[in-house]
Amino acid sequence: MVDAIVKTTKSGIWSRIQSKNGTVPTLEIEYAKLMGTKRCVTTGSGTQALSCCVEAMGIGAGDEVITSPYTDMGTISSILTARALP
Description:
This protein is mainly alpha-helical. Helices cover 50% and strands 0% of the residues. The chain has helices spanning 2-11, 23-35, 46-56, 73-81. The chain starts with a helix and ends in a 5-residue tail after the last helix.
């Protein structure tokens, strides 16, 4: 696993946009199979993952999202980016 991480890091190809058959898209396909789902999307951070979830749920302008007052700014950021109200 460490060798694969080093190889990917050194390659400079870190997203599916850069290579349709590189490490990232291969991971997404194999992980989706492992989880028994159709798709998997890798992200570079928890904030990006939350933004993907907000978009996938169709949350948008004028929607209100209940969240904890004790949370990471990334939680609020993903909601605000979708033009919804936390």
